Every structure is written in structure tokens, then in C-alpha cells.
Amino acid sequence: MLYVTIVSYKLDDINKSTLKILMISTEFPPIPGGVGRYTKNLTDGLKKIGIKVSVLCNEKGKGDFIGIDPKNENNSKIIFEVLDEYDPDLVHIQLEHGLYGLKMNSFNPRSLSTNIDKFYKECKIPIITTFHSAYPLHQWMELSKHPNLLNKNMITVSINLINQIGDYWKRFINYRSFNLANKQKMQASQANIAFSSYLAQLISENENAIKDQKSLSNFSVIYHGAEPNMNKYVKKREARQFFSLPLNRKIALFFGFMTHTKGWDILDNLDVPDDWVVVVNQSENLFNLAKPSPINNQKSQKILSHTDNKNSQNGKIINLNRGFLTDKELSILFYSSDIIVLPYTVTSGSGVMFDALAHGLPFIATDLGFFKEFADKGLGIVVKRRPNEFAKAIKKLESEYLHYTQRIENFNKELTWENVALQHFDLYRNILDKNDRIKNTPFPFVST
């Protein structure tokens, strides 16, 4: 069992650290995407406490260095060139395999690779890896480009069955290789970070690494940071007026990128309580790693039209159709809501959940391993992915709402970006001390 120890640092104003970090993430704003948004907030937090951080990203992002791309087979070469120019003390990878060109073979699973494998094999300075994804087998299979194959009742004549079977087979035979790729990158890194104990254990347990306590101890659990992007609390009435939302009902928010793994098809049969309304907003990320599939034979561009849905007819589902929101707009949307609903079929972690918690919202989610960890902390409810179970959970949260929000308020102290940045700095310093690169590095300045 892994535990997270949150250390509260109260320091005097001292000289800034000489520490130099190269942060690598293909996604980086203005590219829309959860990994990029996380990387931007983390680097901002590190800079605020005095650490020098430069970012290498895709050419469409506003990093300090650009050039990497999922389709660029020279990603490792580009990274080495930046290392030579920038000369950092260590390199920190935000690892989502698809963002670095995950390639799988239908006949030879041992050939699974990404465009940064050479970097991991040959890098001479300390590497820290933050893992954004790992999956148990059933969730890995749900990532198939043709998820309808997983339920024979959903197969329709409009989908090419041969392509479905081919993609399903490719994913199945590459599962072990994907886990091995995670393990190899874990072992090539001087330290590894996960957003939950669930994810750290999932990666470590693959290939029986759990038996190797050294592998398990090489993981640090540092929660995904999250804070409102507003200088002051926004009253619910004002927030709802901003989006022209009803003032006389409670709001259950469905929010995120429009991929089939979000499980929003549950809205087709969700019995929304009379005093509640569902508000939906979805967007599409640049690299679109998990494409959306149609619901009720609708076009994927508008995954939630629901024009003939009984809830829509009764005004119980409101689709904002605002696309990707700015951080400020997102904060206002969270402030307008009462709960966040996450009926995912697949997840390794959820930045949306952390963002919702940061705004005081409890969650209802599918009973997947990641969500169970935080439901056990009393921050939300997990249920079977059935419409009636979600409807009952909405009523349960409503009846115990104050208890949930009080626990969330205490938990949110761990999610501040300053706290997250300090935990990263402590990890950086420990790694560099072990590598004799920087000795006795003082803590940078932090507000008290």
C-alpha cells in the first residue's frame, strides 16, 4: 500500500535555487488538452517558488523549445539537441504514450514503441517521469477505436466489422507490451510520479514488479494540482447568469473532451431528478487520441445533441456547446454547478475530478480503481455504470451534501499548486543529491 505524505513548508525568504529543469510535454497551451494544461500549471508553480524551468513541446504550443510531435520519429534526437543547448540538471517527462507516437503491430507485439524510446535508453542526466496512463486489461480493450465491438448488441451494419476485429486484436496482443513499455521507462527513470496510489500500484504490479520493493519505492504519489482561476469566490447565481443557466435547480455537470471513454451515452437513459438539471460541455483536443463514437447513430461532431431525448424535452439536459473553455470560464462553470458526474468507461486519472474538487464539488463516478481511491476518502460516490445507479447517487449526494463538502474543503489544501510544486522540488533535490549533481540545494522562497 502506498501513502502520500504531504509536508507543509514554511520558509524564510532566501536566494533562489540554481536548479534548471527541462520539462517535456508534447501538449502545451494554447494546444488544448489535459496533459498540456497540467504541465503549464506545474511549470508556473515551480517558477513561482524560484526554480528555472523550460518547456519542450509541439510547434503549436508556446514552450521555450519546440519540435516534438506524435508523428515525428526524430523526437529523441530533438530532445538531445535541446539538452545540449539548455544543459539542465534533470529532465522531467510528462508521459502519455500516444503523445509521443505509440506504435503497435498486429502481428509482432514486441515491436511496440514510441518516438522517445531512444531518449530513455541513452539519456545521461537524471530522468523523472510522470505517468498519465496505465490500464487493467478490460479498460485497455475499451480504448479500441471501435468500442462497439465490446458489446455485441451495439454492433451495427454501418461499421466495418473487419476493421473492428483488427483493431480489437491489435490492442489485445499488445497489452503486455504496453505494460512492459511502462516498466522500462519506470526503470530508466531516477524517480516516477503518479496522481494516485492506484496508478502507481497498477504500473508497479505489471510484470510482477510489485515483488521488487525497489521498483515500488521508486514511485511518488503527488496529486494533480487544482485551484480556482479566480481572485475571489464567485457566487452561484452570478456564475449561472454567466452561462444563462437556470437558477432554481441543482446542477449536475458533465464536462470533458468528447471521447467514447467518457461514457456520456448514459445520458440517453438517465432519470434526472425533478429538482436537478444536467449541464454538458464537451470539447476536442488537438491530437484526439481517443476519437468519439456516435451515440444513438448521431454524428460524432455533436456527441450529445439529444434532440429527441425525454430529458431534453423536459429541459433536464442543457448542452452548452462551448467547446474548449479558458481556465477562467472553467472556474465559473464549476462554481455554477453542484456536483460533477464522471460515468467513464476508462480512466487512469481525472484532472476534471481534481478541478471539480478544487471548486468544492463532490463527484459521482463509475466504480473504477482511480475513482474508488478518492471515494474512500469521502470526496464522492462510485457506482456501477448504470443510469439508475447514477440517479440514486445524485439523490444520496444531495441528502449528505454538507458532509461531502466539508471533507473536500480539508482535502483541497493538498491540491494547491504551491504545495504540488514544493513536493516536486523536494523530489528533484533528492534525486540530484543521489546523483552528485547538486548538493545541499536550499529550498526556494515560498509564501508563508
Give the helices and strands as they follow along the chain.
EHEEHEHEHHHEHHEHEEHEHEHEHEHHH
Largest sheet data: 7 strands, parallel
Residue share in helix: 25-40%
The number of strands is 13
Strand content: 5-15%
How would the blueprint of this fold be written?
Layout: E1 20-24, H1 34-48, E2 52-57, E3 65-66, H2 75-86, E4 90-95, H3 117-122, E5 127-131, H4 137-142, H5 161-173, H6 175-188, E6 191-194, H7 197-205, H8 213-217, E7 219-221, H9 236-242, E8 250-257, E9 276-283, H10 310-313, E10 317-319, H11 327-336, E11 339-342, H12 351-358, E12 363-366, H13 369-375, E13 380-383, H14 387-399, H15 401-411, H16 417-434
Parallel strand pairs: 1-2, 1-4, 2-3, 4-5, 5-6, 6-7, 8-9, 8-11, 9-10, 11-12, 12-13
